[in-house]
Every structure is written in structure tokens, then in C-alpha cells.
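Standup notes, structure subgroup. Blocker cleared on the 1-deoxynojirimycin input:
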Amino acid sequence: MHPVDAMRVPLPSRIRLLAFPLLLCIAGCGGGGSTLPPPPPGFTLTASPNSVLVAQTQTSMAVTVTVTPSNGFTGSVNVSLSGLPASVSSSPASPFSVSADSSQQVTFTVGPAVPRANYAVNFSGTSGSASSSTGLTLTVSGTPLTSATGNFKQQVIYQIVTDRFFDGDITNDNPAISPGLYDSTHTNFQAYWGGDFAGIQQQMAYLAGMGVTAIWISPPVDNIDKSTAAAGSPPSAPYHGYWAHDMMCLEEHFGNASNPCDWTAFDNMVAAAHQNGIRVVVDFAANDSNPDNAGEFGVLLSMGQPFASFQNDAPAPGNFFHHNPDITDFNDPYQLQYYTLEDLADLNQDNASVDQYLKGALLQFMNHGVDAFRLDAVKDVTWGWEYSLANVAFTAGATFLYGEWDQGGTSDPLYPDSHKFANHSGIPLLDFPLANAFRDVFGSPNGGDFHEIDDTLTTEASDFLAPNDLVTFFDSHDLPRLLSVYNNQNRVNEALALLLACRGIPVVLYGDEQYLHNDTNNGSVNGGDPYNRIWMSSFNAQSTAYLLINLMANLRQTNAALAYGTSMQRWINSDVYILERQFNSDIVLIAVNKSETTSYSIGGLFTSLPASTYPDYLNGLMGGFSIAVTNGNPNNNPVTNFNLPIHTVAVWQFASAATAPQVGSIGPLLGQPGITATIAGQGFGSSAGKIMFGATAATTNTWSDTTVTFTVPPAAPGTYEVQLVASSGSNANTVPFTVLTGPLIPVTFTVNNVPALAAGSAVYLTGNVVELGSGVVTTDAAIGPLLQPPNANPPTSWFIDASAPAGVTIQFQFAIIASDGTVTMEPGAAHTYTVPNSGVGAISVDW
Ligand code: NOJ
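Run returned:
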């Protein structure tokens, strides 16, 4: 039906409507007959605007409350306000009076601890027997941010594919400099659909009301301007952002249509996010530029000027790119780092210009207020070089990095390389093993066993230095959405609840809170890329998932067990998982029954929750209920038996003010003297104490009860158990931090004439600096294994890219480590090399 038709009254009814007053008139409109009493005086109350967004500790712009009289109403109206959460006040205070035909400006002031959420505020006006009411949505967002942080553990990240989220600026839908790549019908999944930075900014209240505290946006850099599809075919465009052609500027479809190097729209979005306590994470792809076989054939610009040409790369100036075939063996470290990923022109990070370009691009984002980076395809970029990339970021200021190391699970052949990389580079990873376990458990209609999640948590807890820094997810822009795998909204809710309670920093993929999915088969799976990058067609702030994310994100702010706690399985079978998180006396216990058919009686459950009765923190949103805990052994109190019905999630929690300093986080995990690092936790007190590296005190820059930032002191390089001492003299628990020798430079180390290797043996590099393992020759401490290209000639040469301290003269040596751990050191004295002060280095020696 046309919308206007919907307003029209059908003809026979119209006749009836006209006939009704006519009949009344026949009865009573004639002179001398009785008249109807006039309608009583009344009024209508309105409030404008009907939604306001106010950050914690801020005051809103004025809301105008107006009284519009009818039927001769004069007098004044008594207006009372309801629905305001505690610690939000209004000015004027409720009740207040407004005269007929006039307005009153009302502002709200929000206190610091008000939960981030949408509140339905009601104005109700009365005057004598007349009344009218109206309402508005008050969204309380987080405290405005003034600085970045090395501690991301309290964040909940919302992942946005910018092009698919919200069109806030139609002038950049089809830019003249890259025309024809836009599809307003949203049917060509490979075209731009209109989402942009302004769109994200305009949805800030939706994001803030959901409680998320960070947004990870798809790569915002300027992408190629040409379709990669064959002439005459529908366009194939880089709407996803992974086909950069100028990393120093921004995509014109997302910002300024005619000037990719104009940062205004991006800066405005970042400012709006920060104003509402939301951090911005940029997806940064250092592996490649764009397709080498279509479109712009890999060409890369720098602020609009030619920078690198894939097709004219060699011989001079040369080597901006690797020119190798596509990766076929994703378990071969050489192929991964030096071959081509999905036909994308593979950058050579060891070229000094490329090194400087990539680091410059990342620093430019930091200068524009970006808080953190998701590093694309870290498994495919030169591993050793990435240490220096992280070091450049950490040297520039407080930030958080996490890398995409795509893998199946903890038995993946390169799983050991993944935790070695994370632990030594200071770059935590997206937790693919846990994501795959979640997908198996929740995406299988009848199968799926919680032991898979539990085993993954246990294994990773012993392999990763900072499991709470792993970035967790179950849906992503690269995987079919869980709803495409198994179309069951209960399971999405259950998976979200557990993800948000689990250790690690959770990521929610945009649209999951709206249960969006498109199950079109992409040739291999239903709902796979690009059908998982759907249009955000709904912004319902009342969906169960939206409300659930809100509650759990707020819990992450108020109960330190989620950000910093340990994980302990308290009850498990294939359908039920009861997980406890604990940080000192802060406890969160979550119970999930994912079964479609079976309720379970839960007996023999113990918890660290102190004896008491605990209501469901989710207020029954997913069928939860109270439990009773009685006294037992310390940290092992019995829970009175209960029944856990199908598709139930319950959360019980206890948090108390810390009476002693408790450290939950240090970030980054390593860095040279002079960089800023962050220690977070609780109970630090409000006056500054000390941060000790052995006997050396760090200079503290800021000190609050929960967060300390400090400058890494000039302590001797090595790993320290860092000690926070409160001003009261109380010592906190210690946390490990590795003091590097200096800022890092990528160096290619080559060794020739290496003896033939026995099967299972590999060559490693060691050196007298902490960056090269301090001379400890184990597979974990030493750098390696070294690599060689297939059919290497001579086959006795091996190389590795490692990051070494700038300007330092180092001693280094190679070793062969056999599969049983036996070490054969390179004979003779160690080699000496002075690492350059800047740029990149290379050194080749004989065994
Ligand atoms: C992984 C990203 O997540 C994916 O979407 C992208 O296509 C590849 N890296 C290449 O950049």
C-alpha cells in the first residue's frame, strides 16, 4: 500500500463519518434545541528532542518541554519526571511548573557511575483534572576520554564494516573520483553501499546505549578507485577496505568525496566516540596493497603521490614488493611471510621505504586520536618486522594492538608459533582457537560439547603470557555468521553471554545484536564472505541481544573479575557450562544450558561466591534466577541444587571495594626505557605510590585508584616482576614486564654454510641482548626457526628477520636445535654487528 493510501478512509466509511455529525445536527443544532457541553479545557505536553545523549559526568543540551493549551486552557501545569536513573538529576528538579503556551528548558546532569544505557524518561503534566504526558530516551554514555590506554581488558569491542553500517552523508555515496562503485539497491554485495564515518558518528547513541566501549572499524585508508571485475560485469569494489592504494589518506566513500586526504569526517567521528567514552580501533593491513592482477595492479600512493609500483618494482628502486606465487601451504612459515595472500600485492617490509611508509601510516592514525589497532593478517606479514612495528606504536604513546593470526585450534601446526609471537612481540592475538570452539559448540544443532571451549581456555591459559589480552569473538566479517550456520537466536544470545563473561576482550560483530544474517551460498558455505557483510537494516535498542550486551558490558566496568580474573570451570557436561571468573574477592559465575531439549539438575556445584543469596544479574533476561550459597571451605562454597532449564543463561556476581592494591594488567608487555606503560587493577589509592623495577623506581605520570601510567625506567634490559607499592606502603601482586635495550630496528640475519639438518632439526638465532633471547638457546627463547625459500640455492643458507635494538653493537650466534631439544652451537666466537640507528639492517655471515 502506498503510505498516503494508508491514511485514507475508504469511501463507505467516509460517508458514515460525514453522516454522524449530520444526524447529531438534525437532533440538536436547530435554534432553541439543547447544545452539547463544550469540551473541557486541556493541554498537550511535548518534549523536544525526543532523544538525548549525555556522557557520564556531563550535562545535556536543553530539552524543551512545552505546554500547548486547548479549549481555552490557561493556568499552569505541574510537570513531574520519572524514569531517571539514580545519580542523574534534572534542572529544574522535578516537579516543576510550566504555564500554558510556554516552554521550559530542562537539562540532565549525569554522575560518574551511572550505567551506560538507554533510559525511558517520562514527563507527566497535570492541572486540575487535565493531564498529558510525553517522553524521551535519555542515553547515558561513558565518561569522555582524554587519553589512550595500554589496558584494553575492560573494553567491549563492536566490530563495524563501515560501508555496511549507516549512511550519514549521501554526498560521498558515489564520488566523482571513483564513480560507479556504489549500489543503492544493496544487492551487489561487492559494491559500496553508502556507510561512512558520518554514519557511525550519527549512531553514537545506539552504540553508547548498547554499552560497548570501543569500535573496531574496517580499514579506513584510501582504497583503489577502480573495479576489479571484468569490463561489463557488475563492479567489484573495495568496500571492505582491504585494497589500499594510499595508506596516508582516507577512503573518499567514507569521508570527503572529493578529497581523500581530508580528515574532517574521520576526526569528527573519533571526537564523537571519545566524547561518549568509546575508543576507536582501526584495522591496519600491513601485508599488502591491493590485487596484483586487476584494478590498479598493486600500485601504492603516499598522500596522492606515486609511492610504489608492483608492476615496475624491479630492478630500481626495487623490492617494494615480494614477487612470489600465491600461498598454497598455510602451514609453511616461509610461504606465509613471503608469498602472496589472495592475489594481493605482497609488501616487502624489509625495504626501508616500505618500513617507513607503513610505520608512518600507523603513527598518523595515532596522531588522529586512534586508540588501538587490529593488525590484519599478522601471520602473513614478516613476523620479526612486526616486533618493530609494535615498538614504534608503543614508543609513540599508550595504545593497544591485536593481531589476526588465523588458525583452527590449539593443535594447529603453527599454534606454538602463534603464542611465541604474541608473548615476545607484545601483540596479543584474536583468539581463533576459542572462536572455533564457540562456533562448534553453539553452531551445532544437536552436537557441540562445552568441553571444547573449556579445553581451549585451559590450554591457552598456560601458553599465553596474557590470556586476558586475547581478543575473543565468534562471528567476524570473514566467517559465516552463527545464525547462518544454525538459525537459532537463543544460541546467539547464549554465545554472546558466555563470550562477554569469558576471559579476553570480547568483540561483537555489528548486526549480531539484531540477529541479522544472509544465508546465500558464496560457492563454498552459506552466508560466507561477502554475505556476512550485510546492511545494518535495524537499530532496535530493545532486542534481547542488545540488552544483554549492555548488561555484560556494564558488568565489565563494575566487577574486575571479567577484565582481570582467572577462569575456572565449576560444572560441565556437553550442554551445560558453569564458568567462574575470579579476581581477588570479585567473582562472576555464569551458567549456560544450550540444550534444545534437556533441563539439567545442577548438584554438587561449588563457588568462590561468599555465602548469601544471589539474584540473576541479567534480571531474568534469559531465564535466570537466584541461587543460594552456603558456607563451605574457603573458595569452595556449596550452591543449593537447582534446575537449569533449556536455553537458560544466569549470571551471579559479587564485587567489593578492594582494601589492598590488586594489579590485574600491565600493558604493553615490553618496551624500552622511556615508553609509557599502564598498570591497571584496583585499590591503588588516590595518592601516588611507587612502581618498582627491581631497585629502580619508575616515574609515575598519572595515578588513580584503578590506573597508573608510568615511564619505563632506565633499568638494565631484562624481564622484571614489576611491583606496585601503594602510598600506604602496601605491595600489590607483581606483573612481568620486559625492558628492551632500545627502540627496535628490523634486521635480516643470514647465515651461510650451515651443516645439513637432520629431520626435525632447525636453525635458530641467539644473541647477547634481550631482543635475541639473551643467549638462552631454546625453541621459545631463541629467534626462529630460520627460513629458506623452496629450492634454496645454496641449500645451506638460512635467514630470519628479527627486530634488534637501534644503534647497539650486538653479539650473535646461530644454533641448531634438534627435535629432542639438543643444541648444537655454531662453532667459534660470536659475530658482532652494529644495528643501524634507523631504517632497516641486514647482516650475512658464514657458519
Ligand atoms: C584478513 C581480513 O580479515 C580479510 O577480510 C582480508 O580480506 C584479508 N585479511 C586480506 O587483507
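Discussed briefly. The longest helix spans residues 11-28.
Next: hand off to the docking folks.
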